[in-house]
Design goal:
Elements (H helix, E strand, L loop, with lengths): L2 E8 L4 H21 L6 E7 L2 E7 L8 E9 L4 H11 L8 E5 L3 E10 L4 H14 L25 E9 L6 E2 L3 E2 L2 E4 L1 E3 L8 E3 L3 H10 L6 H18 L2 E3 L3 H8 L6 E6 L9 H12 L2 E5 L11 E9 L8 H24 L11 H7 L6 H11 L3 E3 L3 E2 H19 L4 E3 L2 E3 L1 H14 L7 H5 L6 H9 L4 H9 L14 H20 L13 H14 L13 H17 L4 H9 L8 H15 L2 H23 L15 H22 L3 H9 L2 H10 L7 H19 L10
Parallel strand pairs: 7-10
Antiparallel strand pairs: 1-3, 1-7, 2-3, 4-6, 5-6, 7-8, 9-10, 11-12, 13-15, 14-16, 15-16, 17-18, 19-20
Helix pairs in contact: 1-3, 5-6, 7-8, 9-10, 11-12, 11-16, 12-15, 12-16, 14-15, 15-16, 16-17, 17-18, 18-19, 19-20, 20-23, 21-24, 21-25, 22-23, 22-24, 22-25
């Protein structure tokens, strides 16, 4: 079977677009083949900073002939309808059509349309110009003299050559010939623009890859990544260092080079007084370089302590071994780190306008002798808007501080352990308030202004420098967390209180102004905030009555919906979540309680007792539903004197015991014990349905037995709505 090779080479493809563009090329070409009736065995896409390539194996040489029958009008139809049928079917006269009969509809015309297959080269040549012209680049450009012509070709950067060959391994492939805006396809490619700029004749994929390799182009992006990783690790190891991992940067850098050459540079050790995260971000953002650290962490125990050596990736194998390139990058890195050092030192100094901050300092109880307090006072004094309808950042901080105290009092009424030491509830509230007041104080700092992604972290550093309590330091950084499903969940009580307050203030505020998520739109990341609240409570095993903090009923429903997503992602059955929310937890605002009910119900139903009780419940519920629909009388309570059969007496006694055990278990939120209480109903329920006729002839006995079934349904409903359980 023949293979198809396509390469589209341009001046440059931005690294962030390469992977998707290569995938788009693959789907567009393979879809065109399939739509034209061609099959193929496999396809794989490749990309470099200057080319998209596609290797399609086992393509059919020719599409199959197609014979299609097209039904036409009745033979006695008006002439106009017959002529329309002939035109649509491509027939010259009605004599070319067949006449077929239908017992109900009579005689009608049928056209047999034969579409001969086409050569694969013809199909590809027809499809490629449209694929190239309509390629879904996020941004594209026109170039050259043709750019003034409306409708001229657009590409991400000027398209320089098109390679397209087709043929079996045993024969010389052919060039699939087509042209777009004067650019003709051929069997030529070009290697590295500096090391090997001459044209290379290509036959098929294997020699294409080998020829590019000789011309200093590594086609496979994953291989380029591994080359960079391997060489970087070796260079670092030789210096007694290790590379600080950064998969995102590795992906980006592999898209910037066709022939990766990893080099080591260095900067002045004096810059290491800057926090390591600032150094790493400065070097990464400006120079796309990796930072290094001592193997296994530094001697002072700080795993993130960096060395003054960095790793860069060049696209050229320089004659001097890259010494000049490394030196040049070192100069730029030093300049950038000088800026970062200035930011770091400036943020530790006093602000020049302290007199204008006294009112804000008094309002929040801030100490203007401390730099971070000054920044919080500045944030408030400037009146920086959080949201037009929700006030300033200062007003938001005031709300978070008050809410953090309330949460501390609610969740930790007896105080808490901080760093192995017990603190009273008053001490905890004071620390939560202090952390909340400083939680946004780093927003007006120079460092966060340059690198917004460091907000929280820089606040932690600055809080440490002015001697804040370790839990306050941690909470300033951690109150934004968790930011996603894989992010860490804070465990320090102060961090938990401030993180919950931050997220609940967001949710309550935006609900109050009716700015709720709709469909796929969630501009304020409120779904993420709700999931953050859920994870903070669940992972730390904390009960919090959200109804007292989130007055809007539909906000509680929003939490329930997010909890469903969280539990389903964790492996819980969707029907069990619905059952618990629809049963005893229908109005429950304690998310931890709901989670534990779901877990206990899931564990119960996989047991034999659970499965059989569910069957018994369904039988009872179905009977009750049918009788209620008919208007059959059902006694309000069970009359023991009307219990004639031994099995119904035993069931009544079992329900009495189960109700007592259930009440006690639910009072203590012991859901395993609640399920154990329900499990004791399994045998008497089975025996009842096996031996007792519910619809007895005596109306009083029937009503009494239906009341017994009602008690079964009610007992189960105290744990969950069993009617919502599937399976």
């Amino acid at each position: 079977m023949p293979d198809l090779l396509i390469e589209l080479r341009s001046e440059e493809i931005p690294a962030r677009m390469q992977r998707k563009a290569a995938g788009d090329l693959k789907s567009l070409v393979t879809n065109a083949l399939v739509d034209a009736g061609l099959t193929y065995e496999g396809a794989r896409e490749y990309w470099t900073p200057r080319r998209l390539a596609l290797d399609i194996r086992g393509v059919e040489a020719r599409s199959k002939d197609v014979i299609e029958e097209r039904k036409g009008p009745r033979t006695d139809a008006p002439e106009k309808a017959i002529q329309g049928f002939l035109r649509g079917a491509g027939l010259a006269s009605i004599d070319e059509a067949e006449v077929k009969s239908d017992p109900k509809k009579g005689d009608f015309y049928v056209a047999t349309i034969r579409k001969p297959g086409r050569a694969a080269e013809e199909i590809v040549a027809e499809a490629m110009p449209a694929i190239i012209r309509d390629f879904p680049w996020p941004k594209s450009m026109r170039w050259g003299p043709a750019s003034a012509t409306p409708g001229s070709l657009r590409w991400v950067r000027p398209l320089q050559s098109i390679l397209c060959t087709f043929g079996p391994e045993t024969e010389e492939p052919v060039v699939v010939a087509f042209e777009i805006d004067g650019l003709k396809s051929d069997n030529l490619t070009y290697g590295h623009r500096f090391h090997a700029p001459d044209p290379i004749k290509v036959r098929r994929f294997d020699d294409y890859v080998a020829s590019l390799e000789k011309a200093r182009v590594v086609l496979d992006a994953e291989r380029r990544k591994e080359m960079i990783r391997h060489d970087a690790e070796n260079l670092a190891f030789a210096k007694g260092l290790e590379v600080v991992p950064d998969e995102g940067l590795l992906e980006e850098v592999s898209g910037l080079v066709e022939w990766p050459v990893t080099l080591m540079g260095e900067f002045d050790a004096a810059f290491l007084e800057i926090p390591p995260e600032v150094i790493q971000l400065t070097i990464k953002t400006n120079q796309k370089c990796f930072v290094t650290r001592a193997q296994g962490g530094a001697s002072d125990g700080r795993e993130n302590t960096l060395s003054n050596h960095f790793l860069l990736v060049s696209n050229i194998a320089a004659s001097d071994g890259g010494a000049e390139i490394a030196q040049g990058n070192g100069k730029v890195v030093r300049a950038r780190l000088s800026d970062a050092l200035y930011f770091w030192q400036t943020d530790q100094a006093d602000l020049p306008d302290l007199d204008g901050l006294k009112a804000s300092a008094e309002k929040f109880g801030l100490d203007l002798n401390k730099p971070l307090d000054q920044r919080m006072a500045k944030l408030d004094a400037l009146g920086v808007t959080f949201h037009a309808k929700l006030g300033s950042q200062g007003e938001r901080v005031a709300r978070i501080a008050a809410l953090a105290e309330t949460i501390a009092e609610t969740v930790y009424p007896e105080g808490a352990e901080l760093g192995g030491q017990s603190v009273s509830i008053d001490e905890l509230k004071a620390l939560a308030r202090r952390a909340a007041l400083l939680s946004k104080a780093d927003l007006p700092t120079e460092a966060v202004g340059e690198f917004p992604e460091l907000q929280g972290l820089m606040g932690r550093y600055y809080a440490g420098l002015q001697g804040e309590h370790p839990s306050v330091q941690a909470a300033i950084e951690e109150h934004y967390k968790p930011l996603g499903p894989s992010d860490i969940v804070p465990s320090d009580p102060v961090s938990i209180c401030v993180a919950l307050a931050d997220k609940l203030d967001m949710l309550v505020g935006f609900w109050a102004i009716d700015e709720k998520p709709t469909g796929s739109k969630d501009p304020y990341a409120l779904r993420r905030a709700a999931l953050g609240v859920i994870r903070l409570l669940a992972d730390n095993g904390l009960s919090l009555k959200l109804g007292t903090l989130t007055p809007a009923g539909d906000l509680l429903a929003f939490f329930h919906d997010r909890l469903k997503v969280q539990l389903r992602d964790a492996g819980a059955r969707h029907d069990l979540v619905d059952a618990v929310l629809g049963g005893g937890a229908a109005a429950n605002d304690d998310l931890l309680d709901i989670t534990r009910r779901v877990e206990a119900l899931g564990s119960f139903l996989v047991t034999e007792d659970g499965a059989n009780l569910l069957a018994g419940y369904r039988r009872a519920a179905n009977i009750l539903a049918a009788e209620e629909k008919k208007g059959t009388a059902i006694a309000e309570t069970v009359d023991l004197d009307l219990l004639a059969e031994q099995e119904e007496k035993l069931l009544a006694a079992a329900i009495d015991r189960a109700e007592i055990e259930l009440a006690d278990a639910l009072q203590n939120a012991d859901y395993e014990q609640a399920m154990a209480g329900l499990a004791k109903l399994r045998l008497p329920v089975d025996a009842f349905f096996d031996k007792v006729l519910v619809n007895a002839e005596d109306p009083a006995v029937r009503a009494n037995r239906l009341a017994l079934l009602t008690r079964i349904r009610t007992a189960c409903g105290r744990v969950a709505d069993f009617s919502k359980i599937s399976g």
